[in-house]
């Protein structure tokens, strides 16, 4: 497996409230994370950074996952634990009241990838079946689309597009979506915050990921496209590609 992480403040925001990274456990399996923070004065970056730090700490103590059930159980347990940590912190620190974050996380092994998400940060896959979104946004606009009240085209410009129905850390308990897919040679996962998905069309993402560029070049180009299209939000992404060979490596560009 090879992977790259990149984040960018964008062209408008003064602070980057996104966080993310790629981490290797004791058996060499990888955890990819993207978290898009929100809240009061600078509290969004506190929420996303605490999420990243906590999950990394839990991941450092894990051994090899042999089955998808083990990976799913780990994500369910540890993300719920992070939710408690954030919720308690926001109650105990007035400046962090109401803080929260989206999270999309993927446990990547040589046989499968297990993805969990809360909020509207997304995971896509490029494989022999094409390019598709694996996660479902937990947003007001997506619920309106699902119920048939508006079209996907309407959703792109809806005035309440950024209203989330679920976030990590805003309630005492949170529900997450989780799924496992087969991860085969040549498959590519893209995890990203809405600073990318709101600004770069699916067709553009697919074209860039299919190109013969390096993962670093693909990541840079995706961020460049988001900024060229306005860059109103922070932009964060992880690209992970599975391949067989002796050159397996990890790249983590902060």
Strand content: 25-35%
- Specify Rg, calculated over alpha carbons: 17 Å
Topology order in helix (H) and strand (E) letters? EEEHHEEEEEHHEEHHHE
CATH architecture assignment name: 4-Layer Sandwich
CATH structural fold name: Phosphatase 2c, domain 1
Number of domains: 1
The averaged pLDDT comes out at: 92
Which structural class is indicated by helix and strand composition?
Answer: alpha+beta
Shape descriptor reads: globular
How many H/I helices? Answer: 7
Q: How many beta-strand runs?
A: 11
Quick description:
The protein has 254 residues and is α+β, with helices and mostly antiparallel strands.
Explain what the structure shows:
The model is unreliable at 246-254 (pLDDT under 50). 32% of the residues lie in helices and 26% in strands. It is built from seven helices and eleven strands. The chain has a single domain, classed as 4-Layer Sandwich (Phosphatase 2c, domain 1). Helix 1 packs antiparallel against helix 2 (68-92). With 254 residues, it is an alpha+beta fold. The protein starts with a strand and ends in a 13-residue tail after the last strand. It has helices at residues 43-60, 68-92, 140-146, 152-156, 194-197, 202-210, 215-228; strands spanning 2-8, 18-24, 30-38, 100-101, 103-108, 112-118, 122-127, 130-133, 177-182, 188-192, 235-241. Strands 2, 3, 4, 5, 6 and 9 form a six-stranded antiparallel sheet that branches.
